[in-house]
Prior knowledge:
Elements: E1 7-16, E2 19-29, E3 34-38, H1 45-53, E4 60-65, E5 68-69, E6 80-83, H2 95-105, H3 110-123, H4 139-151, E7 157-161, H5 169-186, E8 189-194, H6 197-203, E9 206-211, E10 214-219, H7 221-226, H8 231-236, E11 243-252, E12 255-260, E13 264-266, E14 282-286, E15 291-293, E16 305-314, E17 319-325, E18 328-334, E19 345-350, E20 356-359
Helix pairs in contact: 2-3, 2-4, 3-4
Residues 45-46 line the site of magnesium ion.
Amino acid sequence: xxxxxxVSVRKLRIDLGxxxxxxxxxxxxxxxxxxxxxxxxxxxxxTLLHSIAGLIDVSDGSIEIGGEDMTWADPKDRGVAxxxxxxxxxxxxNVERNMSFAxxxxxxxxPEIERRVKRAADMLQLGPLLARKPAQLSGGQRxxxxxxxxxxxxxxxxxxxxxxxxxxxxxRTELRRELKQLHQQLGATMIYVTHDQVEAMTLATRMxxxxxxxxxxxxxxxxxxxxxxxxxxATFLGTPPMNLLKGKLEANEGKLWFRGAQLDVDVTNYAxxxxxxxxxxxxxxxxxxxxxxxxxxxxxxxxxHQGSVxxxxxxxxxxxxxxxxxxxxxxxxxxxxxxLASGAHVPFSIDAAHVSLFDEASGERV
Length: 366
Ligand SMILES: Nc1ncnc2c1ncn2[C@@H]1O[C@H](COP(=O)(O)OP(=O)(O)O)[C@@H](O)[C@H]1O
Ligand SMILES: [Mg+2]
């Protein structure tokens, strides 16, 4: 059976050739967590994951798994199982042989192999496919086999490197749900690499957003989405991304205002991290769903800002309105079905309780 193991990465540095890809990185994954490493291509996600798996030597720092120092342990002694983006199945072996290969190699007794393969096949709905060769499987089925091959190892920690990237959109969302259910059933520790924010948001118990080999923020998806620590995180998450408006803070008659080039927002109740610096240029961020468009003449539309529609993107269960407001492009999300033409005037208000403020120079949340 699977043991629950935490993973602790300390002051990790990894040099690849002349590049320092990761420097002084700390990451704590609790036992049983589903941690997602999210970031753009080339930011070091795979490098970090493969170093935990023992496929890449570390240049400095340490990696602990289940309380044991594994920094220099052989990959097979780490209690980890890795699933890659490319399935890398053995083409001449059927599903059952593919799944049991590693166990046969390491001399696991036959009844035990059968038990584990059956269990994994049941979990992944591969039972009817055990006799098939990889060529007779769809992409989604092949990736299930690759996951099954990791499952039979009954590892303490499962590592996934963009396992769904090669699948079409529909299969990707199906298998994504299956992975989440698998995690709920197994309760095993999982670390999952992706550049897909939807995968990160839906799968993670906590997510680490990475850029340039550095973890920018580590928290629950809800925390990271609602309170991004910097402009990179703010704009990397969300579709469309957070609206950003430049301006300054100004105190006036007991209130604190964000005064932008285009509009002002009352930020008196904003949870500043320190004392607000009124001298520094800042950026106000507001998610499209916190820009509330209404209709002309509707209650609350008086005194609201008047934007003009430049584009409407229907998404089925919601739509994105792109509004021009004195030259600023502001995205608003609503569920209204009333048709809106380009050029239509739309009153909108900004929900001040859900804005973010960043220092313009550093990009850091204030
Ligand atoms: N063998 C290598 N030698 C030198 N640089 C490498 C090597 N492998 C990867 N890199 C560099 O390390 C960085 C991180 O790569 P990687 O971890 O694969 O990123 P990600 O998985 O986030 O897309 C990239 O800039 C990449 O060019
Ligand atoms: Mg990668």
